[in-house]
Write a structure and sequence with these properties.
mainly alpha
């Protein structure tokens, strides 16, 4: 027996927020806020000797040391993440310093310019979660929430940005419909 497919209608609010280009102004404000936060964080790290200069890796080693201390006393960092930090990140601190610094900078630029907005927001959220797992609260929860919303709104979040022109070139989501023959 073939199962019948049931299509659930979308509510008007989520349709507006995630599919209607008129909501692009809302996402522009959120994009600029989150993008600016990432850009400033990344710019500071890119210009820092401890992240990308002669002493690259020192900042990561200090950060990981703090996270491991939080794990040792049964605190904010879970054992599996502490193991990841100790066995993968710490021995490669210099590489991770560059990845974090330039990753933050690129996420910020992508969001500010509205270029590959959903992808930029995804990587921003990924970094926020990484910092949260390491026991760092700061602005990470709010940036994670906003980045998650931007990922959900990827089709329209970059409408007032470069995505308006880049996405059709990539074939999504505003690709011109093929002419019927």
């Amino acid at each position: 027996m073939k199962e019948k497919t049931i299509i659930m209608p979308e509510n008007p609010v989520s349709h507006f927020l995630f599919n209607d280009t008129r909501s692009g102004l809302i996402w522009l404000i959120i994009r600029l806020y989150v993008g600016y936060a990432w850009l400033m964080a990344g710019w500071g790290k890119v210009r820092s000797d401890a992240w990308t200069g002669d002493h690259a890796g020192d900042a990561i080693r200090g950060f990981v040391g703090g996270a491991l201390a939080k794990s040792a006393d049964g605190g904010d960092v879970t054992g599996w993440y502490a193991s990841f930090l100790e066995t993968i990140v710490l021995p490669n601190a210099k590489v991770f310093g560059f990845l974090v610094a330039y990753g933050e900078l690129l996420v910020g630029l992508g969001l500010i310019f509205g270029l590959l907005t959903g992808i930029a927001a995804f990587f921003g959220a990924f970094m926020n979660v990484s910092f949260l797992f390491a026991g760092t609260l700061s602005t990470n929860p709010i940036l994670f929430i906003l980045a998650t919303w931007l990922v959900l709104a990827w089709k329209v979040a970059g409408w007032y940005g470069l995505d308006r022109w880049a996405m059709p070139l990539l074939g999504t989501p505003w690709a011109k419909a093929e002419k019927s023959r």
